[in-house]
Structure formats: C-alpha cells, structure tokens
Amino acid sequence: MKHVDEYRDGKLARDLARRIAAEARADRCYRFMEFCGGHTHAISRYGVEDLLPANIRMIHGPGCPVCVLPMGRIDDAISLAKRPEVTLCTYGDLMRVPGSNGSSLLKTKAAGADIRMVYSTLDAIAIAANEPERQVVFFAIGFETTTPPTAMAIRLAQKKRLTNFTIFCNHVLTPSAIQKILEASDPDAVEIDGFIGPAHVSTIIGTTPYQRFATEFHKPVVVAGFEPLDVVQAILMLVRQVNESRAEIENQYIRAVSAEGNRRALAEIADIFETRESFEWRGLGEIPDSALRLREPYAQFDAERRFTIVTRPARDNPACECGAILRGAKRPRDCKLFGAACTPETPMGACMVSSEGSCAAYWAYGRFRDRETGLQRVGAP
Amino acid sequence: MCLAIPARVIELLPDEMARVSLDGVVVNASVALLEDVAIGDYVVLHVGYALAKIDEDEALRTLSLLREAALLGADA
Amino acid sequence: MNKYEPLGRKLDLRSGRVDLSHGSGGRAMARLIADVFHKAFDNEFLRAGNDQSVFDIAGGRMVMTTDGYVVSPLFFPGGDIGDLAVNGTINDIAMAGAKPLYMSASFIIEEGFPLADLARIAQSMGDASRAANVPIITGDTKVVERGKADGVFISTSCVGVVPAGLYLSGDRARAGDIILLSGSIGDHGVAVMSKRENLSFETQVLSDTAALHDLVAVMVEAAGASIRLMRDPTRGGLAATLNEIAHQSRVGVRIEEASVSVRPQVAAACELLGLDPLFVANEGKLVAFVAPEATEKLLAAMRAHPLGQDSARIGEVIEDEHCFVQMTTAFGGGRIVDWLSGEQLPRIC
C-alpha cells in the first residue's frame, strides 16, 4: 500500500530508534503523551515502545471518542433505538460499549431493535432516502476528523429534503481535552514533557489550534502521521525540542496536514455546529467548550430536539481508575479492576471499552511485558 | 483518532463522489471536502470521505528525512 | 394419455419457492429431495432410497465430526454455503490426520426460499463432495416458517478413519515445537464481508474454501509421527486457533508477523475496515505443530501440494504458564495476539 508500507519499515525503525537513544540524555526521563487513540493503537499494535530507550515513556491520552463517551449517552442511544419507528445507524465501534445495567447496542439489536452498523454517514443517508417511513437516527461520535462527514450528511439531507433523518450529536473537540489535561492538578500526575498531536484531526483543524499549548503551557507538540515510523520520527523531534528547551508546534505529517487545515470542512462545521457550554467526558468530568451540537437553523436534524432526550448521568464504578489513567497519572496495571472485574468482555470503564483505550490496548497487546519484568497483576484471559 | 487510510482516486463521479482504490480494493467516497481532486491523486480516506490530499513532494521529503535520521542512527 | 408421475409435477427450479409442504414428509418433500438433493449428490447409497445408509468399515480408529453452517450471505465470491459445508466438515476430519469417508447433510429451509438458490447450493455441495471423493450418503430436510431461518441452515456430519499410530490432539504441543501455516490468511472473511450490506467495497478477493484432506494425507505420509496436531483457523482466525491450542497444551506461542502471509487486497480491505487479518476467518488453511526435526521435510511436502504452495514456518512453542500468544511485529516490536471474545467489528477509530 503506497503511503503506508514505507512508514512501517522495521529496519528504518531500528536505526531511527538508535538515533533516539543516542540523542536522549541519560540523566533525564522523557514523558510524552500521544493524545490520539489511533496513535495509542499503532504504538501497541507495532510494539513501538519496545524500540525506545527505557527513559522515554509514552503516556496514553484520552483521544478515543468511544472511550470518553459518557455511559448516559449510550443509554440515550439505546432508548432511541428501542422506539419502534427508529432505525439507529451507528459505527461498529459503538456496538459493544456497555450502557447502564450491562446493556449495549449489540444486545438491544439482539432483542429486536432496528440498529444498523454503517461504515459511513453516506450509508445512513441512503437508508433514510430508501426507507422514508423510518425515522433514521445517526449516532454521531468522534473528534474533528469525524465531524465533517456528519456535517456533509446534514448537507445531503438538506439537499435531498429528507424529513426522516436526524443525528444524535456527540462530537467532541481535541484542543479542549488537551487543555483539561494540562490544567489538571493531580497529586499523582506525571509531568508531561510534550505531545504527539493527532494525525487526522489535524488534517481538519490544522496545526494552529495547538499553538497555545506551546505559548501558554510551554509544551512542545509534534503532529505525527498515523504509521509507526511517523510516530517514531515525531518522538525524535520531541526529544530534540526538550533537549533544546524549545516549546514549538512542529508538523511531522507534512504530507497531509497544513497549518490552516481543511478550509471547506472547517467552514461547514462552523456553519452547522456550535459549541456546547459544557459536556461530560467519561473519566475526565465536565469540560467547558469541548463538544458540539447543531445550531438552531439545523434543529430539524437534531435527534435530541426531535425526540426530547434528557441525558441522565450514569456513574462509573468507584474503583475504576480511568480518570487517572486518561490523565496519565496511573497505568492500567495500577487499577484494581484491571484483568479481574474489568476485561474487554466485561469492560467497567472508558479505557477498556474501545480497542484504542489504554487498558484495552494494554490487555490486547502488552500484558506479557509485566510478566517479563516480574511485576504482579497480569490479567488472566 | 481516527482510522484513515491513503487511497488512490481512480474515477471521478457526479455529486462530488469518486471511486478510490486501496491496492485494488475499491470503494466509493465523497470528495466534497476537497478542491480540484484529480484521477491519480492520493487522498486520506475516513468513513467514506476524503479529508486531505497527500502531497507527494512532502511525502518524499518526509521519507528522506526519515532515512537521513536513520542513517545517523545506523552509525551510532 | 400423460405418463403418470408418482411424485407429482417436477419442481419449477427457476422461479419456484420452498413452501411448508416440502418439509411435511409427503409427496412434495419426496419431489424436493429427488429434484434437488439426489440429483446433485447422486450416488449408490442415495439411490437405495432409505433413511439411512450402510457401509463397511475397514477397521481402525474411527473419527466423527459434526458441523452447522449459517453463513450470511449464502453466496459470496469464491463459494457458497454449500462449498463451505462440505469442505469445512471434511477439514474437521482431516485435522485429526484422518481420511474422510462419508458425509451426511441436513437442511433446515425457510419457507419462501427460492428453489433456484437451493438447487445451486446443492449443486455446489455435490461438486465439492465429488472433488473430495467423500459422498453425501444420508440427509434430512425440514422446512420452517418464514422468518425462522436465514434462508437455509445446513448441518453436516462426517466419519473417517485415522491411520494406525497417528495421535493428533490440541493438547500435544510442547516447548520447542515449530508452527507451520499452509498459506495466506484472511481471504474468506474478507470475501464474505465484501458482500455484506452497508460495507460495500469491490474486491477480487475470493474465499479460500477448500478440502484439505489430501494435503493432510501428504503431510502424514511425509512425517506423520512428528506432527503433534493440526487445526484449521476458521472463525476467529489464526489468533483464535493459536490461543486455543496454547491453552489446551498449557504452553506459550511466539510467532513472527513477517512470516504470516496476507494478500495485498486482503491487507487493504482490513486496513479500510480497521480489522486485523489475524482475527479474520479462513476456510482452506491449516496450522500444524510439529517436532522441530521434521520442519523442512514437512514444509517441502506441503509446498509441493497445490493447497500448500505458500506454506511457511511462522513460529514456535515456548514455555509460558500464562499461555500467551506473542508476536514479533514486522516493525520489530513485540505484542501479544489476544483471544477475542466476540466477532471483530469494523471500526472507525
């Protein structure tokens, strides 16, 4: 695959890692957070951490929109799907996310609800157009990468004059989440030395929105491509910034990301959506100006207005350490529930719910490392 | 963040759509978010939408920077 | 004067549909069986026209297996539920190192199912059965009301005989054993997925459905005493199979990603959908755990066979009380290959 395989070259990776080891100063630790769940997944899937020297630690951030979706919103989606007139369209990622009382979209579908897994909002629009008697609700989630496809769906719905299409909007914003992490005053929090900026969110928003993390918080941000070599190169760039006491926004993903981002996408988003005053993030609590809803002129496409949804807060298990893990203060194996009550089959909190969450990634890819270093608490399958 | 993959535009369709190919696997995608998409362009594909064009020159530059740094590493 | 047809009029295989009378044991059912199943499977056993078939056994240890086929969609690039039913069942017998002898096939058909589709499926089964030289010698037919079956469900069983001295079992792997894989992974799952609604992508990937008993016979002949076990990685993919065996044998497994073959289009389709080929179903591949000294001999024998041309050594068995399946990634790092609980779903994140 062009533009993919070149960035998975193992030999290049090992040589680059040696470069990193040579440049990383032996007298200090480097702690970098990769914000984006896709990066967490890539790091785990390719075993990138194995190539890094021991004094570089990757902290997995909350850039997984499935993980941070509050349970109450899943409950809302399930209620919507149970209405006989509703066809709920959703991305595959959401099917197994647990709602309250062990429910899920998958189980609700098994009980007879009309829930359809789609690959694209284009499919949901097609269903609405072909089945005018159904109320088609699209379960919209995701960071800024996934918001433009939802925006374009609204445009298409307008164009086709669909009266049976709405979205249940749960789109969230990256810079607000990064800010929350930087502002968090955790006694156990580990100081983060720099961020690996999200790849595809940045194709949309550009690199400019990260500027304030450099100027106000003095944290370097390197926007990295999606492939493991991109991540390794970005780590090298971050090490250099830290060594040189620089705090700048750098762009490693120059082949797809520009400073200003995707103008058309940003214009559509600005026209169709507005920022919610506050939104609850699972594991992080309420964050102001961190999520979107439809503007008034697009009210007819808003499922929350059409179906009068009032979200009830649903609480995570008190022993769940997701909040601390999402902020980088704790690791999966520090959580009492990990591997015991909380497994991918029976996820208790945000970090286990999606394959990109820290705990899920650690479970799926990294548990054997504890065994090798003789540490306790390795989850049994 | 979101799973996106570079795919090559092989045909332009009406209504701002296109057929894109990933090593022979072909899907229909919307190119409504991009301007001046041409056959042969590589685009970043996410949930059925092309979000960005891949700049071939910048890609080559990235690869050459990678290889340069790796060479230094190989000698280290 | 018209010739008297004891079974009534011939079925309209082009545009007719199955109805409840075809399952009720009367003349209509006899007509269905004759026009569809006996026609496609035709052999001396079925021609005898009994509810059971009698055969001689040469002696030795018998093997028996049973399977159910509920794949959706019923027809996919490279095959259909019929091929799957015959080949898959034969493969279960073959994985014991055994020679498959005879099969049964039982059908639960949904009212309204097109006869043309049923005939097509039966024909696939007949062709696969003849190609494998494993006749379908007995069967059953039921029809259920509309909505109570997904078109058609097929249930099979097969009997075979294991050569003397051969003991293959999932609990026989031990540290030091070498793991061989007979070809590329992910083809079947991707082929089936390409036909699912709301996931429309075009691909030339075909299901790899194939009967492996002949390949197995060649392997057993080459080094049967050195083979600990064989298994075909169907649902859940190579990952599930390796994890199952690791747990059954109480060992660990270490494989090299670079040695696991994935066709470019399969890799591309998996990238598109966010799937890992390790978890995608196969229907014409096997893994074999073998004593290390027999590795080269077995690989040579496998590669000489059309169904094993891309055979490769993919890893080894190690001591590990946690029974992890570890993988060295092509990138050079390490990871474990998890044992998924449910089906892998396409993802956007």
The secondary-structure class of chain A comes to alpha/beta
Low-confidence stretches of chain A: 372-381
Structure annotation, total helices of chain B: 1
- What structural category characterises the helix and strand content of chain B? alpha+beta
Beta-strand level of the residues of chain B, as a percent range? Answer: 35-45%
Helix content of chain B: 25-40%
CATH topology of chain B: SH3 type barrels
| CATH structural architecture of chain B | Roll
What oligomeric arrangement do these chains adopt? heterotrimer
Biggest β-sheet: strands ordered side by side in the sheet of chain B: 3-2-1-4-5
Topology as H/E string of chain A? HEHEHEHEHEHEHEHHEHEHEEEEHHHH
Q: What do you see in this structure?
A:
The complex is a heterotrimer of chains A (381), B (76) and C (349). Chain A folds into three domains: 5-64 and 190-199 and 209-246, HypD, alpha/beta domain 1 (Rossmann fold); 71-171 and 262-306, HypD, alpha/beta domain 2 (Rossmann fold); 322-364, no CATH class. Chain A is built from 15 helices and 13 strands. Chain A has helices at residues 10-23, 37-46, 71-82, 105-110, 121-130, 147-159, 174-183, 199-205, 211-215, 228-243, 263-272, 303-306, 322-326, 350-353, 358-372; strands at residues 30-36, 56-63, 86-90, 115-117, 135-142, 165-171, 194-197, 221-223, 249-251, 273-275, 278-281, 285-288, 292-294. In chain A, helix 2 (37-46) runs parallel beside helix 15, helix 5 runs parallel beside helix 6 and helix 6 packs across helix 11 (263-272). Chain B has one domain: SH3 type barrels, CATH 2.30.30.140. Chain B is 26% helix and 41% strand. Chain B is built from one helix and five strands, in the order βββββα. Chain B has a five-stranded antiparallel sheet, with no helix packed on it. Chain B is elongated, with a radius of gyration of 15 Å. Chain C is of the alpha+beta class and 349 residues long. Chain C folds into two domains: 20-162, 2-Layer Sandwich (60s Ribosomal Protein L30, Chain: A); 178-336, PurM-like C-terminal domain (Phosphoribosyl-aminoimidazole Synthetase, Chain A, domain 2, Alpha-Beta Complex), CATH 3.90.650.10. Chain C is globular and about 75 Å long. The model of chain C has no long low-confidence stretch (mean pLDDT 93). The chains are: A alpha/beta (381), B alpha+beta (76), C alpha+beta (349). At the A-B interface, helix 1, helix 2, helix 5, helix 6 and helix 8 of A face strand 1, strand 4, strand 5 and helix 1 of B.
